């Protein structure tokens, strides 16, 4: 396996604040950006799920689920071809799983299904989506469930009780044929073949697991994007934000610890990770200053959200633009969208016909505004057309 320390260093472009969003009244637990970087989901202890337009920073839709408790996890649904968001799924503290579907020619999302847990089951701890087979995995109350995403429903395919009740994370590998589960207390990572259900491998890591992220090369090659993770050439890898001394980078399966990036864990905050395709990653902070590391693990940038804990992060990339989103877990519970316009696309320099070129940040903002205006116009085209017809009839 090639050592990342021998790679040519990649310059990480500077992240600048694009929008500061205000809409939640309690700690923000959930952030998820659609793969086409058009929408952002945010969920909080105030039992509100908000959909934001990334380009404009405007609130698109707010969903009140106060009777189901706080939001605990969420993810976007999309096809494995065009990456465009088709809907989303989120889980609440009472164990309910909510499926929302995007309406055609609209930016609104409507409820398609709500799956209620059996009595006594805990909250939804983790979700994972497999775009190849349209499957969703859920973890709640020590039970793993595999669902088929139908047009207006979620169909249960399999359920399996686990040894450890507390599940840290779920993700699919091998084009959705294998589900990887990480457990908080037992330090274990276990992979199961999904159809039929069969254990593939089991490993025990050195620390308690909180956030568990991976980069899976076969998924990236197929849909030309990244779920979440850290890349080591020649091998699939995973990141673990542990509760002891920082972030661990392992091979996948986790047979070898590649290195550890140490940061303060004195407050024992559960810090989330945000990752980018060229191998850089950011980690949440108890002080409000978010560190960004390059592909070799060197600190290359710090991003100041504020002076209070910022534990919730997400990221997305579209072409040569990288997005980082951070959310405060204390008042004022604000969300900040950061953008870095770069000549890098998929980890390689993009060279124009007459040499390297890149947009200035001002040009980048103007372009984003024009894209947002175009998106609004297209989404309201039918409304404008109907209005013109009515005016013609009146005349």
The CATH C-level name of the largest domain is Mainly Beta
Number of strands: 30
Mean pLDDT value: 79
Structural class: mainly beta
Q: Can you tell me the number of structural domains?
A: 2
Features:
395 residues; mainly beta; Methylamine Dehydrogenase, Chain H; 2 domains; four-stranded antiparallel β-sheet; 3 helices; 30 strands; globular; disordered N terminus
Helix and strand topology:
Elements: E1 16-21, E2 28-33, E3 39-44, E4 48-53, E5 59-64, E6 71-78, E7 85-92, E8 97-102, E9 109-115, E10 124-130, E11 135-140, E12 143-149, E13 154-161, E14 167-173, E15 178-183, E16 188-193, E17 198-204, E18 209-215, H1 217-223, E19 237-242, E20 246-251, E21 257-262, E22 273-275, E23 281-283, E24 289-293, E25 299-304, E26 312-318, E27 321-327, E28 335-341, E29 344-345, E30 348-349, H2 361-379, H3 381-394
Antiparallel strand pairs: 1-28, 2-3, 3-4, 4-5, 6-7, 7-8, 8-9, 10-11, 11-12, 12-13, 14-15, 15-16, 16-17, 18-19, 19-20, 20-21, 22-23, 23-24, 24-25, 26-27, 27-28, 29-30
What does the model show?
The protein folds into two domains: 19-358, Methylamine Dehydrogenase, Chain H; 359-395. The protein has 395 residues and is mainly beta. The protein is built from three helices and 30 strands. The longest helix has 19 residues, at 361-379. It is globular and about 65 Å long. The strands form eight sheets. The protein has a four-stranded antiparallel β-sheet. The protein has a four-stranded antiparallel β-sheet with strand order 2-3-4-5, with no helix packed on it. Strands 6-7-8-9 form a four-stranded antiparallel β-sheet, with no helix packed on it. The model is unreliable at 1-8, 214-235 and 343-360 (pLDDT under 50). It starts with 15 loop residues before the first strand and ends with a helix. It comes from Coprinellus micaceus. This is WD40 repeat-like protein. One of its GO terms (cellular component) is transferase complex. Pfam families: WD40 (PF00400). WD repeats lie at residues 21-62.
């Amino acid at each position: 396996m090639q050592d990342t320390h021998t790679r040519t260093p990649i310059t990480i472009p500077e992240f600048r604040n694009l929008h500061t969003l205000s809409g939640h009244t309690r700690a923000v637990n959930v952030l998820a950006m659609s793969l086409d970087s058009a929408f952002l989901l945010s969920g909080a202890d105030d039992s509100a799920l908000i959909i934001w337009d990334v380009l404009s920073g405007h609130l698109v839709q707010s969903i009140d689920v106060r009777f189901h408790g706080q939001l605990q996890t969420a993810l976007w649904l999309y096809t494995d071809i065009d990456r465009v968001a088709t809907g989303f799924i989120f889980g609440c503290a009472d164990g309910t799983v909510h499926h929302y579907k995007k309406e055609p020619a609209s930016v609104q999302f409507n409820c398609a299904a709500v799956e209620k847990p059996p009595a006594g089951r805990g909250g939804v701890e983790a979700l994972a989506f497999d775009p190849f087979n349209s499957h969703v995995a859920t973890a709640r109350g020590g039970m793993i469930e595999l669902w088929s995403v139908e047009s207006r429903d979620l169909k249960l395919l399999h359920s399996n009780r686990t040894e450890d009740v507390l599940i840290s994370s779920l993700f699919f590998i091998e084009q959705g044929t294998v589900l990887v589960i990480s457990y908080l207390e037992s330090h274990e990572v276990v992979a199961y073949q999904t159809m039929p259900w069969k254990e593939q491998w089991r490993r025990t890591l050195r620390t308690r697991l909180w956030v568990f992220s991976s980069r899976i090369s076969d998924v990236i090659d197929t849909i030309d994007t990244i779920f979440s993770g850290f890349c080591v050439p020649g091998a699939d890898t995973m990141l673990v934000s542990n509760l002891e001394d920082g972030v661990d980078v392992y091979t996948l399966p986790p047979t070898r610890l590649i290195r550890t990036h140490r940061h303060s864990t004195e407050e024992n905050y559960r810090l989330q990770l945000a990752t980018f395709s060229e191998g850089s990653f950011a980690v949440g902070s108890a002080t409000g200053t978010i560190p960004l590391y390059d592909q070799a693990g060197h600190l290359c940038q710090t991003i100041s959200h504020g002076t209070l804990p910022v534990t919730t992060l997400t990221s997305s990339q579209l072409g040569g633009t990288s997005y980082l989103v951070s959310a405060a877990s204390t008042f004022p519970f604000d969300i900040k969208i950061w953008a870095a316009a770069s000549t890098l696309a998929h980890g390689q320099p993009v060279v124009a016909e007459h040499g390297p070129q890149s947009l200035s940040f001002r040009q980048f903002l103007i372009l984003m505004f024009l894209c947002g205006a175009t998106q609004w116009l297209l989404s309201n085209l039918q409304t404008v057309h109907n209005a013109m017809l009515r005016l013609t009839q009146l005349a």
